Batch of 4 targets.
Target 1
Amino acid sequence: MDIDRDGVRRASDAEYANLTPLQVRADTHRRFSRRDDDVEAAVRDALTLTGAETVLDIGSGTGSFVQQLVEEGHTGRVIALDISHAAYLAARQVPGVEAIHASADDIPLPDGSVDVALSRHMLYHCSSPEAVVAECARVLTDDGVFVATVNHARTVPMIRHVIETELAALGLAVPEYTNWVTTATVAELVGRSFASVDVVRHDNELVFTEPGPLVRYATSLFTLYGADENPATRQLLVDRVTNRVEDWFGASTEPWLEPKGYSVCTARGVLPA
């Protein structure tokens, strides 16, 4: 196990060792969605915060959510937890935010110490989503709120198909896509730990009218396939995906429409462990 200078373990995988791909994906969804797509706003709407709550953001990523909370004047305790070392460091740079470098299935906080626990687009990266939800329930107060965001099953399928086809053409393994935590399954998962569960769908699509933004988005997904580890291989994949996308736009007068969507799951009423 690698240990960082603060004596806590580093993330074991490389997916979020660099936060740039995550930021590219967030920017793409914000700029190229057919309808406004602001996941953070959707989460805030689900919470209706007073400003005094203790908020735990699990899988804090770039730290944008907790930063916005602080900038909007949230006076309660704001905690950002992530197993990614880069994300942990990003959260540490936000004044007024407590950064914790730990795994979501072993949260180093006392029982009943948090009013709001957030799990935004991270449950499907966990080896045991059930354990993560149970941990969130443990640290919540009796009247606390848990909010999770999860994607629809097989979101952005066309872009993924291009990447996977080109990986196979290079003779590289295509990781099996086994995400089972989706819009269709999140209520049952969260309902194991909470009495009341509400799921709100957000259906949308990305609209690309030129190759550049689509290629940038596609390459930001390479980390999900482990394709960023070898620079030479990554460049070959960039070139092949770029050629596929440019050929498509050269043969079509229509925009590239990419189906996508996510859901906001809000839960209350912690069940006995």
Note: The chain is about 35% helix and 25% strand.
Target 2
Amino acid sequence: MSTIPMTAIGAQRLREELTRLKSEDRPRIIQAIAEAREHGDLKENAEYHAAKEQQAFCEGRIAELEAQLSSAQIIDVTKLNPGGKVVFGVTVDLLELETEKKVTYQIVGDLEADINQGRISISSPVARALIGKEEGDEVVVKAPVGDKEYEIVAVHYV
């Protein structure tokens, strides 16, 4: 099994979700199944079938999280010394040269990516263009909508 790069914070988020699923959701679902069983005929018991469906989803997510965490290569960017270069896990402030719009992205693993939270995947076109560059460098990102030019304003190792 190959390893999957993941930030320390991303791994912590997954561990917290796993703990919640095991300690809160799983017992609640088991209780709902027990209560639904008390209502009699299971063939026509919608509450029972809904609870069993929730149980299947919960157990599937638990298995998925355990597999992801077991194959994760956790990288703590605060312990790296990349010499000012953009590497996995850093947060980068960018200036889009055409529109002069400022954006901030953290480069994370595929499992952690969430563009709404400013976390982009290491395999995204933006991250691939940024890796290895330094503050002050200009980069061209080959995106599906066309080339975009950015200047790296700042690199944060947090």
Note: Residues 20 and 26 are 9 Å apart (CA to CA).
Target 3
Amino acid sequence: MYLSRLILNPRNRLVQSDLANCQGLHRTILRAFPEKDCVTESNNPDARAQFGVLYRVETDNHTGKVVVLVQSQMLPNWQVLPDGYLLENTTLTNPSCKPIANLYQQLKLGTKLVFRLRANPTRKLTPGKITLEPITDAQKRNGKRVELYKEPDQIDWLKRKATQSGFRLLSLKLASDLDNLQVQPVAKEMGWRKTSDNSTKQLTFGAVLFQGELEITSLELFQQTLVNGIGSGKSYGFGLLSIAANTVS
């Protein structure tokens, strides 16, 4: 596993285009991985999953710089990015990349960590008429995915995901009474991609930034979650669970 940090050049036209179109940024990031190993799109449209790519765009609170964190199972080659895409004359190594597999393997049950997660909280609506009959797995899979707008629903979503992902949230409170958890709605993610019939489909994702403290309750599940991410929209900058040692507790 590798974690890369890219500091983008906000004056670059492709950067501006990618930040306005999540499909474009997805495509640019995947340039760093070898095409020869990709299965054709008709057979496997999710090349991101093949390379284990998760990423998150964020703005540095101190410098205002636009940073993209990219986690991947394969060592990326950022030299393929277009000239001028990354910011030059920065005091930080840009791009930077480091192995993180050993850090994930050294985690222990019961460890408390601070975390950050940019997520797309949703739920699936079951298609068809209201019925008392049991809902099949196929109906669940084919249901429409809808955004969760209300903060309590978003927090309930995160609690469910935590249970499924091998951790529990600590001191969980609403944004109106912040403690260790912060729930911060951010701008919707927008984009456009070509469909199989060559038409254009608009992409829209609701985005929430979760920050707080967690405790590992299942080491195996948690390690899988770090690798696989949380929730939907992983191709478009959602689901990367970033962790750091809790220096307060």
Note: The first strand starts at residue 2 and ends at 7.
Target 4
Amino acid sequence: MSEIFDLYNEKMEPLGETALRGDLIPRGKYHLVVHILSVNFENKVLITLRSPAKPYGGLWEITGGSVITGETPVEAAVRELREETGLKALPQALDYRGQLLFKSSAHNHITLFYLFRADFQEDSIVLQPGETEAARLVYPAEIEQMAKKGEFISFIYQRAKAFYPDIFGEAMP
């Protein structure tokens, strides 16, 4: 079954319209996406390896996905975290870090960024078949090295540095 997304304007006001995954989103309309950086009490970041069948397949990333119809961004972040990693977070455990508006000829979305700090280890992770192939806990400096080698999705790394400066040691541009 295809995912259905609510559409919003640039101010994240609902337009009362929807789109199916894969549809072209018209100019001036956006669907919402969430990214969640999960950090354990050893200051290690949870990264997952994308399924080879997905865009950017075979590369490492942080948890994320689209907000589906009827969900708030926080609800989507909780759901994506649980679905992709098995980690259970209460909405109040997610620290909102900001948003980024992305426009292109084929894909318009607003990405909202959250930080999840909790006591978890690699053996706590339950992967979602078809979405993620592996999981690792790594220090932020390791992610930088992986990005330089082309093993980590570069634009995700750049956004992580910008939205989680306390983790990656970078300031917002």
Note: The beta strands are 4-8, 14-20, 31-39, 45-50, 60-61, 63-66, 94-102, 109-117, 132-138.
